[in-house]
């Protein structure tokens, strides 16, 4: 049977390192670094990304990107791509979108820019299923031999892994506030994970699994009976309207 795609942050990071480490691009010369602020700052941004310092990353990348507003070569994406993903990780969706919209037209149409823009729109509109598919598509595209910079590929995959991990944690938090119980198939859609991994993740986030009902129940709900909580037990799991109702309900908790 085919090997399932990676779903956890650790799996995605392991895949990134195994995919691109063998073909890492050469470092620029010292003269290039002096003349080119993008190449000069890219190693620093890379360190921020790999060490999870996303606030520092966005601050530096924003400064470099604004100063490179006239840059029309593809190397500008060495800054813009980490900047956009950093904003997504920090849940700054408008800033992520703005960083892409100020690219010149020929860079905005680059496959990497297009993939990032589609990801931003999926997050903005809470299109969970499409979002997870988009992140996997971006991981696959950066692993291609013709991707223009292998060091950037490693950064993109690492940051996508961090984004997915944080997004799932936030989703669990919102679900815990909203619902007494949730059908496991719906949780699988929310989290972009197979059911067995959803159950394991649920146990780690104070949810219990009822195999007879094929549903998850928040253990913490008994401690806060006054909270506005919705049970999905009476809803048919497979209907599209049910899924949109739940997505809209959880989205309102973010406002």
Main pleated sheet:
3 strands, antiparallel
Q: Which stretches are poorly predicted, pLDDT < 50 over at least 5 residues? A: 19-26, 222-247
User: What is the radius of gyration?
Assistant: 20 Å
- Terminal residue distance: 43 Å
Average pLDDT, rounded to a whole number, is 81
Describe what you observe in this structure.
The protein is mainly alpha-helical. It has helices spanning 9-20, 30-35, 37-50, 54-67, 77-89, 93-101, 105-108, 111-124, 128-142, 150-178, 184-191, 195-204, 240-253; strands at 181-183, 207-210, 215-218.
Which secondary structure elements does this structure contain, and how are they paired or packed?
Elements: H1 9-20, H2 30-35, H3 37-50, H4 54-67, H5 77-89, H6 93-101, H7 105-108, H8 111-124, H9 128-142, H10 150-178, E1 181-183, H11 184-191, H12 195-204, E2 207-210, E3 215-218, H13 240-253
Antiparallel strand pairs: 1-3, 2-3
Helix pairs in contact: 1-10, 3-4, 3-5, 4-5, 5-6, 5-8, 5-10, 6-8, 8-9, 9-10
């Amino acid at each position: 049977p085919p090997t399932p795609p990676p779903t956890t942050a650790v799996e995605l990071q392991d895949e990134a390192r195994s995919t691109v480490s063998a073909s890492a691009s050469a470092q620029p010369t010292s003269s290039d670094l002096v003349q080119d602020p993008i190449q000069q700052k890219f190693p620093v941004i890379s360190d921020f990304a790999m060490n999870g310092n996303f606030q520092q990353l966005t601050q530096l990348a924003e400064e470099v990107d604004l100063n490179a507003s006239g840059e029309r070569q593809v190397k500008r994406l060495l800054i813009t791509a980490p900047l956009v993903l950093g904003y997504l990780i920090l849940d700054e969706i408008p800033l992520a979108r703005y960083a892409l919209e100020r690219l010149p037209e020929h860079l905005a149409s680059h496959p990497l820019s297009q993939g990032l823009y589609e990801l931003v729109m999926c997050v903005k509109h809470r299109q969970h299923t499409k979002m997870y598919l988009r992140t996997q598509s971006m991981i696959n595209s950066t692993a291609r031999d013709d991707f223009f910079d292998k060091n950037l590929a490693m950064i993109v995959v690492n940051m996508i892994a961090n984004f997915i991990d944080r997004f799932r944690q936030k989703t669990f938090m919102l679900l815990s506030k909203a619902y007494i119980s949730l059908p496991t198939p719906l949780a699988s859609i929310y989290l972009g994970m197979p059911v067995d991994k959803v159950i394991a993740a649920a146990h780690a986030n104070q949810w219990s699994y009822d195999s007879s009902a094929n549903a998850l129940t928040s253990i913490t709900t008994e401690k806060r009976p006054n909270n506005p909580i919705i049970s999905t037990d009476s809803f048919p799991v497979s209907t599209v309207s049910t899924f949109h109702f739940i997505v809209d309900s959880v989205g309102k908790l973010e406002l």
